[in-house]
């Protein structure tokens, strides 16, 4: 092997070694940052773990509201009836599960609809939403933080509007013209029981969480949040 070939070989080995070391360092930094943000458990595996845990491939995301001690999987069927009376395992249950409207795409839609049961006698997941009816609870900013985590991103929301409705389905709409969207946002702002400064704007993406309520009877409690940020995995 002549001198030039030898030098080329040494440079090649060193450059590969440096590249490997740099890649290792980058991977370690990414892992450290990931664990710092999301904890020691790799969230990228959350949905798969939950699907295996419940033997149910209809788990599409995760809902977290720390102020309510709420951390649950979000399910989605091909209709809005199934999870009214089936649990996360797909078994018959009067309590049901937290589920996303069948018309929604959790990753791209501007407006998401989540449903869950309430009860005067049973502590369901969405019974906790009644806490937002307390002004002292609502007025603490940390209490209004909500997040949804999917396969590829985390979406952070802030609750900005809370109210009850009877005999209306305006909140169920998911398809809008520009004028209809503006009317929809105005309706939400005008309906809120709280006159806070964080009103929705026409540019906002929103999350509506719906559950049954009893004052008045056969009404619905709506907790509406706007998207404040998102981060991709």
Low-confidence stretches: 4-41
Distance between the termini: 48 Å
Largest sheet: 8 strands, mixed
**Mean pLDDT over all positions:** 86
Kindly estimate the percentage of residues that lie in beta strands according to DSSP.
25-35%
Q: Any idea of the CATH class of the largest domain?
A: Mainly Beta
Looking at the overall shape, the CATH architecture of the largest domain is Beta Barrel
Rg over C-alpha atoms, rounded to the nearest angstrom? 23 Å
CATH superfamily of the largest domain: Sortase
Output the CATH topology of the largest domain: Sortase, Chain: A
Task: Describe this structure as you would to a colleague.
- This protein has 233 residues and is α+β, with helices and mostly antiparallel strands.
- The protein folds into two domains: 1-40; 56-232, Sortase (Sortase, Chain: A).
- The chain is built from four helices and eight strands.
- It has an eight-stranded mixed β-sheet with strand order 2-1-5-6-8-7-4-3.
């Amino acid at each position: 092997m002549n001198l030039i070939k030898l030098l080329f070989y040494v440079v090649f080995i060193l450059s590969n070694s440096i590249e490997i070391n740099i890649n290792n360092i980058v991977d370690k930094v990414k892992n450290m940052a990931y664990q710092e943000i999301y904890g020691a458990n790799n969230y990228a595996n959350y949905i798969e773990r939950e699907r295996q845990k419940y033997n149910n491939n209809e788990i599409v995301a995760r809902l977290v509201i720390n102020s309510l001690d709420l951390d649950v999987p979000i399910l989605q069927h091909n209709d809005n009836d199934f999870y009214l009376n089936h649990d996360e395992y797909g078994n018959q249950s009067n309590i049901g599960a937290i589920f996303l409207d069948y018309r929604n795409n959790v990753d791209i839609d501007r407006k998401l609809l989540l449903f869950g049961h309430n009860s005067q006698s049973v502590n369901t997941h969405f019974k906790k939403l009644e806490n937002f009816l307390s002004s002292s609870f609502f007025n603490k900013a940390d209490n209004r933080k909500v997040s949804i985590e999917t396969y590829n991103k985390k979406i952070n929301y802030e609750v900005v509007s809370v109210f009850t409705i009877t005999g209306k389905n305006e909140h169920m709409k998911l398809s809008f013209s520009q004028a209809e969207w503006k009317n929809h946002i105005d309706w939400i702002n005008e309906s809120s029981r709280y006159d806070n400064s964080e009103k929705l704007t026409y540019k906002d993406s929103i999350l509506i969480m719906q559950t049954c309520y009893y004052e008045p009877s056969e009404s619905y409690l709506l907790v509406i949040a706007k998207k404040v940020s998102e981060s991709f995995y």
